């Protein structure tokens, strides 16, 4: 890690030992729940990579190593808040209540995977954003609308460290500060912008320093410590809901996998660096703390892993059973209202499909 441990907000050291008293909300049942969440999303991640390797999923961005950030984000947001995710945010979306098969559907190339709902109830969260940093501008618009509408709601947007070099990001934090809107930025500083290491992206010691120019608070947090992550996020969201403005959180983590399944990180980073990063990873750290409190055992681990595999396999079965989209779906999910020239093109696709299927369609 490029950031000194002493400079980060954290409760657990790398061995899972307490550095300071736990916050009031951090009781053992809550932390056990966080641990279960992280283990489940890691089992899911391994399965998703395997599905891509066997041709059942498209290019997939692993979240291996950032589980603490995602679960903290997802659990900290209220249902009536708005989450604006980037592409490595499956854990947060799952914690928000989005079904696993929806995530698989999206990465399988089916935009119906972006039709989110909380337990069949519509939600206001935005779909995944793959273009780098553009979701930050969307989040500013969302938060500005929340402010105009009134009420005690907030928006939260995530991005990677590479996104902080983009104009979209810098314009967004500038507007957030100038307009005093209820928005929380969370940077997943996983040390790599694809193959560009953090030290070559920016001369600042902390990415959170970029908040100074925008006139908003900037905080650096140990992104592998879910207790610290959740604590800072709930405080920042509370501040936003009370009308006190935006906050920028830099969550220091490490990308343990490739950038995506189309990448080979061994071409640009050393095995020694990767093995060192595995010593800091979030799942291992929280488990060590729970074990030290006699709040987790190997029997618990075996039982939960078996449950996780069952949950994930059932989600995969539901995903694989989804009927494919009709050809004309290529025209859907582009505009709220189709343009005039799209109608005849769509009709032509439908007619061609009917001819190929002997007059049957749908």
Automatic annotation (TrEMBL):
Gene3D superfamilies: 3.40.50.970. Transmembrane segments: none annotated. Its EC number is 1.2.4.1. The keyword Ligase does not apply. GO terms for molecular function: pyruvate dehydrogenase (acetyl-transferring) activity. InterPro entries: Alpha-ketoacid_DH_E1_comp, DH_E1, PdhA/BkdA, THDP-binding. It holds the Pfam family E1_dh. Its cofactor is thiamine diphosphate. One of its GO terms (biological process) is branched-chain amino acid catabolic process. It comes from the Bacteria. It catalyses: N(6)-[(R)-lipoyl]-L-lysyl-[protein] + pyruvate + H(+) = N(6)-[(R)-S(8)-acetyldihydrolipoyl]-L-lysyl-[protein] + CO2. CDD domains: TPP_E1_PDC_ADC_BCADC. Keywords: Oxidoreductase, Pyruvate, Thiamine pyrophosphate. It is an enzyme of class 1 (oxidoreductase). PANTHER family: 2-OXOISOVALERATE DEHYDROGENASE SUBUNIT ALPHA, MITOCHONDRIAL (PTHR43380). Heterodimer of an alpha and a beta chain. The pyruvate dehydrogenase complex catalyzes the overall conversion of pyruvate to acetyl-CoA and CO(2). It contains multiple copies of three enzymatic components: pyruvate dehydrogenase (E1), dihydrolipoamide acetyltransferase (E2) and lipoamide dehydrogenase (E3). This is Pyruvate dehydrogenase E1 component subunit alpha. It comes from Photobacterium halotolerans. The lineage of its organism: Bacteria, Pseudomonadati, Pseudomonadota, Gammaproteobacteria, Vibrionales.
């Amino acid at each position: 890690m490029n950031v000194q441990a002493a400079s980060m907000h954290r409760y657990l050291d790398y061995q899972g030992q307490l550095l300071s008293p736990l916050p009031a909300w951090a009781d053992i049942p809550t932390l056990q729940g966080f641990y279960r969440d992280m283990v489940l999303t890691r089992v899911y991640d391994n399965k998703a990579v395997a599905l891509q390797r066997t041709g059942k999923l498209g290019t997939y961005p692993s979240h291996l190593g950032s589980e603490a950030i995602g679960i903290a984000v997802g659990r900290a947001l209220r249902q009536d808040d708005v989450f604006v995710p980037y592409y490595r945010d499956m854990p947060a979306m799952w914690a928000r209540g989005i079904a696993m098969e929806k995530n698989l559907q999206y990465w399988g190339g089916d935009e119906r995977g972006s039709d989110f709902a909380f337990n069949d109830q519509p939600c206001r969260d935005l779909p995944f954003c793959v273009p780098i940093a553009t979701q930050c501008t969307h989040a500013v618009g969302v938060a500005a609308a929340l402010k105009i509408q009134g009420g005690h709601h907030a928006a939260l947007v995530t991005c990677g460290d590479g996104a902080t070099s983009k104009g979209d990001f810098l314009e967004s934090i500038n507007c957030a500060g100038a307009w005093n809107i209820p928005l929380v930025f969370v940077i997943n500083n996983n040390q790599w912008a694809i193959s560009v290491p953090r030290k070559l992206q920016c001369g600042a010691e902390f990415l959170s320093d970029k908040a100074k120019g925008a006139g908003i608070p900037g905080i650096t947090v140990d992104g592998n410590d879910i207790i610290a992550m959740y604590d800072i996020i709930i405080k920042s969201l509370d501040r936003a809901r009370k009308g006190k403005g935006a906050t920028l959180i830099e969550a220091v983590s490490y990308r343990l996998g490739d950038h995506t399944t189309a990448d080979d990180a061994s071409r640009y980073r050393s095995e020694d660096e990767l093995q060192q990063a595995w010593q800091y990873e979030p799942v291992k750290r929280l488990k060590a703390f729970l074990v030290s409190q006699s709040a987790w055992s190997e029997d618990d681990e075996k039982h939960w892993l078996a449950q996780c595999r069952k949950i994930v396999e059932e989600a995969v079965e539901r995903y694989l059973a989804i009927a494919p989209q009709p050809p004309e779906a290529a025209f859907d999910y582009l505009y709220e209202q189709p343009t005039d020239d799209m109608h005849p093109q769509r009709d032509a696709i439908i007619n061609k499909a009917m001819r190929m299927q002997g007059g049957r369609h749908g």
